[in-house]
Amino acid sequence: MVNALEIKNLSVQYNNTLALSGINLTIAENDFLAVIGPNGGGKSTLMKTILGIIKPLCGTIKLFDQTPEKSTSPIGYVPQFSGFNRNFPIKIIDVVLTGRLSGKSNLFHRYTDKDYEVVEKQMEKLGITYLKDRQIGQLSGGQLQKVLISRALATEPKLLLLDEPTASIDNDSKAQIYEFLKDVNQFITIILVTHDTAAISSYIKSIACLNKELHYHGEPKLDNSIIRKTFGCPVELIAHGVPHRVLESHGE
Amino acid sequence: MLRALFQYSFIQNAFLCSILISVVCGIVGTIIIQKKLVMLSGGIAHTSFGGVGFGYLIGIEPILGAFAFAIAAALGIGYISKKSHQSSDVATGIFWSAGMASGILFISFTPGYPPDMTSYLFGDILTVSRIDLLLTLILDFIIAFLSFSFYNCLKAYLFDEEFAAVLKIRTNIINSMIHIIIALTIVILIRAVGIILVLALLTAPSAIAALFSSNLKTIILSSMLISLLSCFIGLWISYSVGISSGASIVLFTAFLYLTAQIVKKVITARSNRQIQNQGIS
Questions:
Q1: A103 vs B168: CB contact, 8 Å cut-off?
Q2: Whole-model pTM?
Q3: I want to staple B252 with a disulfide (CB 3.0 to 4.6 A). Which of A21, B29, B42, B234 is the partner?
Q4: What is the CATH number of the domain that holds A47?
């Protein structure tokens, strides 16, 4: 069986500090991995390295057995909200349509009927067709997140990366998005990063903790020793596999 | 003034020049506003003053020196801020001052009488030559062709550069090309409105258009019209009152911008009131 993602001995330097050190990670096809860790633990850096936006110091990344440069299947990417200009004059349908572009879209590129078909299907699945003609600046957090997920899926990826997908959105939207991702996971491998441990719910299949170094745990049995290793101190846990809230003292 | 338009070729040139620069102002101005490159553009404009001085010093056409310095600044600022992980504001500020300083230094080294720099600092659309018009026309064609043919990629890049890079669109090349185009545009505009005033003509029309439209194409086309209007009316004021053309064009543009802000405020307040009234009744 082909692995969706294979990272070997990866180290990444970002802003003159070592952001990731000696990362090894293998993700099977159709896995649903959550990477948790504190802010500044290198979660976004890991995402951007997989996407090829940041060049690693050393180590290799393989996507479906191919190097990222050669890989033909695009990666669906759902960035954090801060990454783009929310006042940009663009309609939602046009935002999602950009997912249909590629490096090969060159001179006089125009979107085809098939592009519109794919985009409209994705928007319908996420229930945002009614937002089609709105401006990007007019959306709520939950709506915007669904737009970004539609755009990522419009690239027809085999691997979907989400960066903090549930930050700054309400609980209803959160639940809807996780339900939707669970559905999508039947066909697409998903990696999501979050610092929100409450998000580690019954939807995910495996879990990894990242704080410069990565600890892969397979089955999501989140216990305090894992959390302490990652966050440096015990944090409140509301998670699958943990029977009740455990809030350990810091030990004075 | 109409009679003068038919009589004097320099007024005809000024009118032609207004039309030609409006095309670049609309496209490049919109890119600058949407990509938040206003400071960078200011830095490029002022660095090109060093090029003007250098041109005088080594005895070539000063505008060629300006081209070289502007392109070097555009690429240099981008490169330095990328490598140093600092905001491009820092490099921009340094290029800005260093460009002006080196311009003055080069001029003082130039043998003979110091040349008059006023027309480079404040521009003079009434002295544009046939060559200037031809250069502007060529630039118009290049910019219009590139932005029209790569419109979808350009729009995706302007909206979300990182996502465009993930799609394997070559954002590095687009970035450098946009920087070079801004540099070329600024130097072309220096002839009309000068180094110090260029920023207003480049940004105000598109900023006005963006207040009233949320469609990228509409913004580009209407900012072309707004800058054309500013140039014509500014030129007319300058002709009838007898003041510097660069200054009157820029002042009129700034006036339009302030008026547009006020009109926008009034419209928003009125529509808010309507919504409130509907809520009450």
A1: yes
A2: 0.87
A3: B234
A4: 3.40.50.300
